[in-house]
Amino acid sequence: MLDEALVASTISRALETGGEFAEVFVEDKRSSSAVLDDGKIEELTSGRDRGAGIRVVVGDTTGFAHTADLSAKGLGEAADAAAAAAKGGGGGTRTVSLTRQDAPNPNNVAVYPADVPKGTKVELLQQADAAAREVNEAISQVSARYGDSRRQIMVANSDGLLASDDQVKTLFSVGCIAVGDTGMQTGRETVGHTIGFELFDAHDVSEIARTAANRAVTKLDAIAAPSGTMPVVVGPGGGGVLFHEACGHGLEADLVAKSASVFAGRKGEQVATDLITLIDDGTMSTEWGAFSIDDEGRPAQSNTLIENGILTDYMWDHLRARKEGRPSSGNGRRQSYQHLPMVRMTNTYIANGPDSPDDIVAATEKGVYVAQLGGGQVNTTTGDFVFGMLEAYLIEDGKITTPLREGNLIGNGPEVLTRIDMLGNDFAMGSPGTCGKDGQGVPVGDGTPTLRVTALTVGGTAA
Amino acid sequence: MTELLALADQILAHAGDGEQLEVVAVKSKDTEIRVYEGDIESLATAESQGVGIRVIADNKQGFAYAGSLDMEVILETLTEARDNATFGTPDEFLGLAEPDGVEPVELDLYRDVNAADTNAKIDLAKELEKAAAGAEPRITAVESADYYDGAYEAAVASTTGIRSASQESTAYVSVSVLASEGDDTQDGYGFAVGRELADLDISKAAADAAERSTKLLGAKQAPTERLTIVLDPYVAAQFISIISSTLNGEMVLKGRSPFAERVGETVAATQVTLVDNPTDPRHFTASAADGEGMATRRNVLIDGGELKGFVHNCYTARRAGTETTGSAVRGGFKSTPGVGTRAVSIAPGATSRNDLIAGIDNGLLVTSVAGLHSGVNPISGDFSTGASGLRIRNGELAEPIREVTIASTLQKMLLDVMTIADDVEWLPMSATGVSIAIGDITMSGS
Homologous superfamily of A113-152+165-219 in CATH? Predict the structure, then answer.
């Protein structure tokens, strides 16, 4: 992407004011999308973002600058700006020699989306539109989106590290509206993986469209969700967001270090029922949060955070790990070259448990079954978190019955972890997501088997 | 500014026969400082630029963007946009904006924040951290204290005669603190915002953070019941933004607005008058021109409870057989213009906030909400969100509450508005805040 000698000299220049650590992150990202809405191919968009971010660390201070100008002049100016923000006592000239460190790539891309004719992508959208409208005459509107991106990155730092990655993602999403006597209802289905256009060998867009349409149609018969605290069963794949919010963010070392996490100082303690083993795994092949190196050049890892209910470790980036004298866990990520990296999740999941999903529902006399969760949000200081239920049903006498209108569920992370009393053996990954933190979005995945929380507050309006 | 327009003109010169071309070019420079325990934790400076090109030919539209103002890259981007246009579905209503004689207002939104001394900016953040730490004995830590400023220029020009350029600056500080009492820890934030350093009221930001973090100490979940809620101005502004998103010409045309076909009907309590007015400089999001370079204007959406109309850009207006309301919005240079309100406010009432609370026997003052993106569906109107705040009993603020949800529907909430206070707050978002009392809300808890 960039000449190695130029990268090395940029690092040296960034260290001239006495920096202890300097890093150059180069990114070249091409993305394309096509949108169908209201029966029309509205627009195809192509984008290109290319630039470098340079950071210099002195003590606890980080200086950062970025530039879209990748010439020696542009990089030199950015290095000076980053260095000016983080001045050390020493200074002088330090020569940096870089050693390439390759990490295994978890994803072999078979078909680069850029090599696929745009017309083929457009046909997928039209196929999805037709399939969704065929499901039911109540479907009044369909939107479909195709998107792909190729993000090539290169990271080099004053420790001599030089690493690169080529991250290809492909995504397809369909949203439907159904109209009935009670107004409009919506349904959505999204499929996305860190692979190329071969995504569509394994996923039929008509099927994606039918899933979205059926969700909207089903909800036309939905009644208001109940209000109050009750048992909640979350279906396979759906519960990942719950753990992402209930404890994932609270296990990020930057929040832990500032005591802004309810999980600070609890390593080695029982924080969940012993059914729970929570893993964050950047190596999970083809999943949405997978990569071969993180945005600090560290190879992706599989990290066990909670093992049989015991908190075993937090997630770490370079800076936090360096301070503690331990290796990074490969969780240093950033939205783009214009952002500083911080501790972020990758693919976060709960490993399988002993129970059959049917038994879990049958054992629940009255409660709510959530088939599809929407987004969520957590306050890491208090542990209180919410997440939306996009597709949910009442459980009555151990059976899944009437569909429910949308709403939020609210709970407290540390409490909910101790209230999971049944865990299924039907593990599945959920939908691809974008996790937001401090204004930066990064792609993440999550997954769970079916699980039951004995008491969670359901935010509906019915008694 | 003239530099960006000149660049746009250079690109427009490449327009082919029978082809409409629109260029949006953007340049920004910002500084971001975070301090922690008296030292700089990070200091980032950045210059960004980019261009977005929209092509309409044979009633088909294509778009491409690049994060660069390099001519070679731009010409590649133009080629991509042109190629993309060939795949669009022909639509007779497609077309770029054309000048309509409405003159843009003069707005004074720019100060040279980049010229200010970096050390003065660092000192502001340090001062804020210190003020927040010492604001209240129960404050145990300052999680972050940040300073940010940015100067932003943009130009929109087209082969249909649009030529618009704008320049604005922002400066803000924000602080996040932790407060503890017994086993309980709560957080709270405060901020101050303006066009330049001198606008920033550090002590208010620190005091707000202290108040927000301490007032919820000891908060507990409450039992489920139906009651009246009072939305704090900051929460009310978020609610108003969601309501406004449904009064959008594009949502209406595509059958996604629960208020479509309802112009002229009563959709809200008579106290409710909702106006979008980006020409009012008191709005932090004020802007003289919209995302297509048309002059912005004052648009009444709801008047005394009656739905008056929707906001439009040139495309949705043409399709709906009406005029643009100057409401094209775009997320920088990376997208084509959509439609949206930019600066909405709900007309304040004559009641003070204290009197408003005094008039409620059994209620919840909602000081913060969580999960608006996951629990509110602007198409069906379902509204359910996590909430925390203070109980209201017999007209007085009582014990703190957390881990509850509040739920209703957007349609019903508008009709259930009881009282709007007079405490207007201009906030760094697309809606202004004011305390609002809304009846018949389900609070879910234990």
Answer: PmbA/TldD superfamily (3.30.2290.10)
Q: At what angle do helices A205-219 and A118-135 cross, to 10 degrees?
A: 30
Cβ–Cβ pairs < 8 A, chains A and B: 252
Burial degree of B366 (CB within 10 A; 0-12, 13-18, 19+): buried
Question: How close does chain A come to B162, measured CA to CA in Å?
Answer: 22
Do the chains contact at B80 and A118, CB–CB below 8 Å?
no
Q: What is the band of A182 on the pLDDT scale with cuts at 50, 70, 90? A: confident
pLDDT surpassing 90 at residue A219: yes
Asked if A39's CB is within 8 angstroms of B371's CB, the reply is no
Tokens of B318: 């043409």
Using a 10 angstrom Cβ sphere, with 0-12 exposed, 13-18 middle and 19 or more buried, the burial of residue B306 is middle
- Segments making up each domain of chain B, as ranges: 2-215, 219-446
Could you say which residues from 275 to 334 on chain A have a Cβ atom under 8 Å away from some Cβ of chain B?
none
Check whether A2 has a pLDDT greater than 80: yes
Nearest to A377 among B43, B89, B371 (CB): B371
- What's the confidence (pLDDT) of residue A106? 63
Supply the ipTM of this predicted assembly: 0.90
Give the best-scoring range by mean pLDDT among A457-461, B67-71, B414-418: B414-418
Residue A22 corresponds to which tokens in the numbers above?
A: 């300097």
Interface subset of A 152-211, CB within 8 angstroms of B: 177, 179, 183-186
Asked if A258's CB is within 8 angstroms of B36's CB, the reply is: yes
Q: What is the pLDDT of residue B331?
A: 85
- How many C-beta atoms lie closer than 10 Å to residue B101's C-beta? 5
User: In terms of CA atoms, which chain B residue is nearest residue A66?
Assistant: B46
Can you list the positions of beta strands (E) in B291-332?
299-303, 306-307, 328-329
B85: alpha, beta or left, given left = phi > 0 and alpha = psi -120 to 50? alpha
Arithmetic mean of pLDDT, B191-207 = 96
Rg of the Cα atoms in chain B? 24
pLDDT at A93: 67
Task: Count H helices and E strands in chain B, helices first.
Answer: 10, 18
Domain B2-215 falls under CATH 3.30.2290.10 = yes
pLDDT of residue B142: 95
* B39 neighbourhood in chain A, CB within 8 Å: 59-61
The reply to whether A33 touches chain B by the CB within 8 Å rule is no
In chain A, which segments carry CATH 3.30.2290.10?
Answer: 113-152+165-219
- Residue B378 bridge partners (DSSP): none
For residue B222, which residues of chain A lie inside 8 Å, CB to CB? Answer: none
- Torsion angle defined by CA atoms of residues B362, B365, B371 and B377, in that order, rounded to the nearest 10 degrees: 60
H or E segment at B71? helix B71-85
Q: Above 80 in pLDDT, residue B213?
A: yes
Residue A88: its pLDDT value, please?
67
Chain B residue closest in CA terms to A216? B380
* For chain A, percent of residues with pLDDT exceeding 70: 98
Whole-angstrom distance, CA of residue A51 vs CA of residue A238: 37
Contact A302, A279 (CB under 8 A): yes
Alpha carbons B404 and B222: distance in angstroms, whole number: 7
